[in-house]
Design brief:
elongated; single chain; 427 residues; six-stranded mixed sheet
């Protein structure tokens, strides 16, 4: 993700919670009492009918699987949104077990359902998400009557953007933008994502990524938080989030998604918008190498470094908090730890800035190709490697973490002082 504390203040880490967007979660209880086979067979038949209706673009047949009422009305809009998507595959199937519930009477026919879909040309594997649907028996058929009863059973379903309103789809040269608000609103995001995909592939193509990207654009921050199962308000100031499975090769996981926070995005200067997409696409492009061995200073520093390549954004905007801190007597010590990225405000902004400078220094001193090779060496270090970062410094850059840190400190101070000079001239 990419938070902001003002114009281009902070770079950001990928939320661990974000992977929930692409990975099916095991919410059901294996010990839950199985539904009677006759009921399960009826529900399975209903889900099969829904699958066939979406495949055939048959809206009447799809709505015939819903009980009359508010859910059918909402499902009509959902079908229209599904019809707008370039679906290579879509299906619904009954999960192996029912969710455990302390409210058996209220949720007697609440079942866990796996919805699977694959977007044509951008997803290499199907994306599986979890639904909790309530069924009622009418005329010998089991029809869907609600998707809101999971909360009473203590379970939470995944939300997709087509659950939040009518979606539009814009296809760019290397992007698929799915969002709310109409095509005119989404077109600029396709242009930004196309540029970012080309930039990321040019720099990080050795990571095995040269494909397209899916960009999701909800209407509000609250909708973004719902898509990511994040707490209300937790993404305040976050401009964009990359959701995906790290450490997996391109063809072994669904395409990553870049999700936009419109509240924060619209608050940024227009000349910064490209930077944000370039930053996020770096996370997409380096997914195969972004394993737990890669520290945040490297993954986030690399993303900011790529975002700033060929950018006209001035040093005083890039390093405002850093310059202020150095002017106040602060000095860099060690490369940032994970905890340094937590929170918000000037301290976290500075953490991202000095991470960026670590990667910028590698590229400047050793060359861009060496930065790429270093990232790969750290991320793909054999299991059991005691210190993948130090090993990468030694084998790729011919230095050590200790020696690099000394030179990085001097580089940080030089950049901070230069930014401080610019700030004084503008004040």
């Amino acid at each position: 993700m990419r938070p902001s504390n003002g114009p281009l203040r902070v770079a950001a880490a990928v939320l661990a919670v974000a992977v929930a967007l692409l990975v099916a979660r095991c919410v059901g209880s294996s010990k839950a009492e199985a539904a009677p086979e006759k009921v399960r067979a009826g529900i399975a038949a209903t889900l099969a009918a829904r699958t066939a209706a979406v495949t055939r673009h048959d809206k009447p047949a799809y709505l015939a699987t819903d009980a009359a009422g508010w859910y059918r009305d909402a499902d009509a809009q959902r079908f229209d949104s599904l019809a707008a998507l370039p679906l290579a595959a879509w299906s619904m199937a009954l999960a192996d077990s029912r969710p455990a519930s302390g409210h058996a009477a209220a949720t007697a026919h609440l079942y866990q359902v796996t919805e699977s879909y694959q977007l044509s040309g951008v997803d290499y594997q199907p994306v599986a998400v979890t639904r909790f649907l309530t069924f009622v028996e009418q005329g010998g058929s089991w029809l869907v009557s609600s998707d809101r009863d999971g909360a009473a059973a203590g379970v939470r379903a995944d939300t997709q953007i087509w659950d939040q309103g009518p979606v539009s789809v814009v296809r760019g040269a290397r992007s698929l933008v799915v969002g709310l608000g109409g095509e005119q609103r989404l077109k600029p995001f396709a242009d930004l994502a196309d540029h970012a995909a080309n930039q990321a592939a040019k720099v990080w193509g050795a990571a095995g990524w040269s494909g397209d990207v899916v960009v999701l654009v909800p209407s509000t921050q609250a909708q973004l938080e719902t898509l990511l199962n994040a707490d209300p308000g937790s993404l305040r100031g976050v401009v964009a989030v990359t959701a995906g499975e790290g450490g997996k090769p391109l063809t072994k996981a669904p395409a990553s998604r870049v999700l936009i926070n419109p509240d924060a995005f619209n608050a940024e200067a227009p000349d910064a918008w490209q930077f944000f997409l370039d930053h996020e696409l770096t996370h997409v492009a380096t997914r195969a190498w972004t394993t737990p061995a890669v520290p945040l200073w490297l993954s986030e520093g690399a993303a900011d470094h790529t975002g700033y390549l060929n950018s006209s954004i001035s040093a005083d905007r890039k390093f405002l908090e850093l310059a202020d801190a150095v002017a106040g007597g602060w000095r860099p010590q060690e490369l940032p730890a994970t905890d340094d990225f937590h929170g918000s405000g000037a301290d976290v902004s500075r953490t991202y800035q000095i991470s960026h400078l670590a990667c910028a220094y590698i590229a400047e001193k050793y060359g861009q190709a060496k930065l790429v090779a270093f990232y790969k060496a750290v991320g793909t270090a054999p299991a059991g490697t005691a210190d993948p970062v130090d090993q990468g410094f030694r084998t790729v850059l011919g230095t050590t973490t200790k020696d690099f840190t000394v030179k990085w400190r001097a580089y940080v101070l030089a950049k901070a002082n230069s930014a401080g000079v610019l700030l004084k001239k503008k004040s």
